[in-house]
Amino acid sequence: xxxxxxxxxxxxxxxxxxxxxxxxxxxxxxxxxxxxxxxxxxxxxxxxxxxxxxxxxxxxxxxxxxxxxxxxxx
Length: 74
Fold this sequence. Notes:
Layout: H1 12-19, H2 24-34, E1 39-40, E2 46-47, H3 50-57
Antiparallel strand pairs: 1-2
């Protein structure tokens, strides 16, 4: 995870605390149940936006974009 700015994403320990499990597949399943959006790293671990988690913890309604991510389409 050295290529990813750790401050942008929750640490592995923070994801473990949020989900209550250390298993990557179980973390993704719990994040899905909780409605947290995440990206999946190459090793299968979920990457949760620190910005999203902080806003949600403060009770801020965060609207995540839906639909295709066209910025990757050429």
